[in-house]
């Protein structure tokens, strides 16, 4: 509990254990504001604008692995209410947060600091994180926080909507890739996890990170980033900031969608920087395959060669956790030829 950044950081200098080495720290870099990821208007996506929207989604997913969506059908009211509830949660007194805090990896709903790897990592990330599954709702909701009092009601409503939006986008993606309708439905998108990230004001944002550079391991992520800057994506060897937009969701392609598309789409690398003025709270919904799903490139997209071999999603997660932050290494372990060159015969150490 003494680990939670939101509990100890007020008026304290940045501890040594949060200082990243010069090559990964953000420094005083000003990210270009003229460049930003595409904003896609989903209005009429089921009607006369469909072909155009499908093309925009495909292009953004190829170039950036990221885009924002507006007119997505989730009410402004629900978005605001959930942000209020998430902020309230991190503003609760320590005695309420201690109930949620846990270092037990078996606990499905827990509050933690930095990452699952806190005790083993060299440098900690400047974030507190509440995580829990959202599906099947009737099984997992009883483990969710009981305070703030409206948490369960509001977050249940948002998670249902976020899943619907994700499936809608996946349907547009499958159309763009020429896959059959419903390709990503069912087991490939069965799981839903929520991360509520909280980045308190930081005494020196140039030296630390809220989250280090990574790709999301899942299929598709739907992020409500609120109205504070912090998310940056790595594109063409430079960092670009994702502009907060009222009522928009940020959508990004996860590793599994890159693999199933046989590299036609890319999972965008991203990180989170902190700021010294205000706390930033975000909510990321991870749509993911069920753990026993078999993942492989879609047959119709393989063409000459399948870049990846078939594997079980849970094996990917194990490798992802043990090579955190090194996207090339993780993806490389699931490429077709790594089957033959003997690189991968046993499971690596678990998280
Ligand atoms: C994540 C993530 C971005 C943000 O939780 O994987 O990238 O802005 N979050 O909080
Ligand atoms: Ni992420």
TrEMBL record:
**Reactions performed catalytically:** salicylate + NADH + O2 + H(+) = 2,3-dihydroxybenzoate + NAD(+) + H2O
Lineage, top-rank taxon, reads Eukaryota
Q: Which GO terms describe its molecular function?
A: dioxygenase activity; metal ion binding
GO BP term, example? defense response to oomycetes
Could you say which cofactors this protein requires?
L-ascorbate
Q: What keywords appear on the UniProt entry?
A: Dioxygenase, Iron, Metal-binding, Oxidoreductase
**InterPro entries xref list:** DIOX_N, IPNS-like_FE2OG_OXY, IPNS-like_sf, Oxoglu/Fe-dep_dioxygenase_dom, Plant_2OG-oxidoreductases
Give every Fe2OG dioxygenase domain span: 190-289
Task: Please state which protein family the record places this protein in.
Answer: Belongs to the iron/ascorbate-dependent oxidoreductase family.
Q: What protein am I looking at?
A: Fe2OG dioxygenase domain-containing protein
Q: What is the lineage of its organism?
A: Eukaryota, Viridiplantae, Streptophyta, Embryophyta, Tracheophyta
